[in-house]
Amino acid sequence: MSEDQHMGNLYQRFPVTVEKGKGAHVWDVDGKEYIDCMGGYGVALVGHQNQRVNNAIKEQVDKIITVHSSLYNKTREEFLKTLIGLAPKGLTQVHLNNSGAEAIEAAIKFARKFTGKKGMVAMKGSYHGKSFGALSITFNPKYKKAFAPLVDKVSFASYGDIESLKEAIDDDTAFVILEPIQGESGIIVAPDGFLQDVRKLCDEKGILLIFDEIQAGLGRTGRLWACDHWNTAPDILCLAKGIAGGVPMGATLVRPDILASMSKGEHSSTFGGNPISCAAGVAALKSITEDGLIENSEKMGKIFREGLEKLKENHTMIREIRGKGLMIGVEMKFEVRDILMGLIREGVLMLYSGRNILRILPPLVITEEDVTKVLHALDVILTEEEKKRNVQG
C-alpha cells in the first residue's frame, strides 16, 4: 500500500522511505544512510533519537499521557518554568498549542483583543502557516488564491524597508509581524538596524510587535533567539518546530498584560500543553542549552558557509549564500529539483525554497565530518549539472 493512494497530492515528495534516525543521520528501509539536512523542515533540532528526549518521553508515558489544561500537571509546570527562564525579556506568560500555525493564530487573537484594533501588517516574503489567520498574513499568493476571501485588514511591507512599513501602518494597526530571518522565501536575513527600527516605530505608534521564530528560534541561528543577533525583543514570540524534540508542540509567549486581556474560554487548545510534549520540551530545551548545541550551530554554520563560498568560486550555478548558524540558503541560477535528486543519490537529504534555492536546516548536532561530506556531495552534483548544461547548450 502506497501512502500516495490515501494522502492525496498535498506534498512535494521524494523517493526515500525513512525507517530510522540517529543524530544528523537517517536510514531508509533498504538500509541506505543519509545525512539529514532537511531536519524534518527544522523539527529535528536536537537530533534524531536525542537521548534526553527519548528518556523523557518513556518516563512520562508510564505516568500519564494527557492532562487537559483545566487541570494542573507538574510536567507542564516544569516546562513552563524552563521556557520562561530562557524567554526574551518581558515575555513571562505562555499559551501552549500544537504547531506553528496555531502559535500564530493565538498571537493574532491576543494582539487584536489587547489593542482593540483590527489591522495587521506582515512582510512581503513572509510565511506564517496555512490555517486561515496565518495564511492571511503569509505573502505568497500561490498559497492563498484558491481560498479567498481570507481574514481582511492585512497589509504587506517590504522586508527590511522601514519607510515601506511606515506607509503600511495606520491608526487601526494592531500589530506588525515578521520573521527575523525569513525561511520559506529563501533564508532572507534582516538587514542590520531593521529590527531595532521596527521596535522603535511600534513603540511610538502603540503597535504590538510579533516575532515568528518558529523556524529561526531555539539555537538554529547560533543564538538562542534569532532576535538576539539584533538585541531586540518582541511583545509576542511564536515558537514550534523543534521546541519538543520532534513531538508536536507550539508556544505563544506574551507579555502578561497582553494575555490578561483575554477572558476565560476565548482561546484554548485541547491538546496544548499535554504532558508528553511538555516532557519532551523540557528535555529538548535542556539539550539545546546544556549540550553545546547553540555553540555547535554557530561553529558548524560558519564552516558550512565558508565551504559553500569556496564552491561558489568554482561553480557559476551558485548565485548567493545567505544565513546565520545552521539556517542557510543557497540561491542558484537554475531550478534545484535535479540537484536535490542528485544529492539523494549521494546520501544527502536537503530542502528547497521556491524553485531555485537550496535550504539547509540540519539538526544542531551535525559534525564537521558530516558538513565536509555534504559539501563534497554538492560539489559532485553541481559538477555533473554544469557538464549536462554545457552539453545541452
Task: Show the helix and strand layout.
Elements: H1 4-7, E1 18-22, E2 25-28, E3 33-36, H2 39-42, H3 51-61, H4 74-86, E4 93-97, H5 100-115, E5 119-123, H6 132-136, E6 154-157, H7 162-168, E7 173-178, E8 181-182, E9 188-189, H8 194-205, E10 208-212, E11 236-239, E12 250-254, H9 256-259, H10 275-290, H11 293-314, E13 318-324, E14 327-332, H12 337-345, E15 348-349, E16 351-353, E17 357-360, H13 368-392
Parallel strand pairs: 3-15, 5-6, 5-7, 7-10, 10-11
Antiparallel strand pairs: 1-2, 2-3, 4-12, 8-9, 11-12, 13-14, 14-17, 16-17
Give an overview of the whole structure:
This protein is α/β, with parallel strands linked by helices. The protein has helices spanning 4-7, 39-42, 51-61, 74-86, 100-115, 132-136, 162-168, 194-205, 256-259, 275-290, 293-314, 337-345, 368-392, and strands at residues 18-22, 25-28, 33-36, 93-97, 119-123, 154-157, 173-178, 181-182, 188-189, 208-212, 236-239, 250-254, 318-324, 327-332, 348-349, 351-353, 357-360. The strands form four sheets. A seven-stranded mixed β-sheet has the order 4-12-11-10-7-5-6, with helices on both faces. Strand 2 and strand 3 (33-36) form a beta hairpin. The longest helix is centred in the C-terminal third of the chain and has 25 residues, at 368-392.
